Amino acid sequence: xxxxxxxxxxxxxxxxxxxxxxxxxxxxxxxxxxxxxxxxxxxxxxxxxxxxxxxxxxxxxxxxxxxxxxxxxxxxxxxxxxxxxxxxxxxxxxxxxxxxxxxxxxxxxxxxxxxxxxxxxxxxxxxxxxxxxxxxxxxxxxxxxxxxxxxxxxxxxxxxxxxxxxxxxxxxxxxxxxxxxxxx
Length: 184
Prior knowledge:
By secondary structure, the protein is α+β, with helices and mostly antiparallel strands. It has helices spanning 3-8, 30-41, 63-83, 103-108, 146-157, 176-179, and strands at 18-22, 47-48, 52-56, 111-115, 128-131, 135-138, 161-163, 170-174. The strands form 3 sheets. It has a 3-stranded antiparallel β-sheet.
């Protein structure tokens, strides 16, 4: 696919240095493909998410590097096409964030720890990220909804790591009572 292909379709902002590959139709997640490329082929990608992987080309990228990536992807595709008949259809929800307070207020409030299962309607006191890619799913001051909990559980099931300031298995939330905030 070339730059002209996108321009002719009215798309702008096409970045020729980024290669996005949808792998979920192989019955694997982007996280699985990311790990296989790293562990079995010594190829480090920029990021992965549930359905996709992203490779970024640099000035030092040569044709042989691209051929190596394509060859590795072909091997992964052949392996998983034979193993899996069902594509991945995990739906991660997107909703507009619900903010209870500003991030600074949440950061400086009294805090408590809760498990993911007990985080419903709590106000996050920290950024919660999924790695890879390391993009925040929740920021301080945001209400943790059932959709967010479901998405975090799905990411964990698909091999992602949840990154936050909290010890593993718990989330840091605002203690609304101690902080003097009224619960709605």
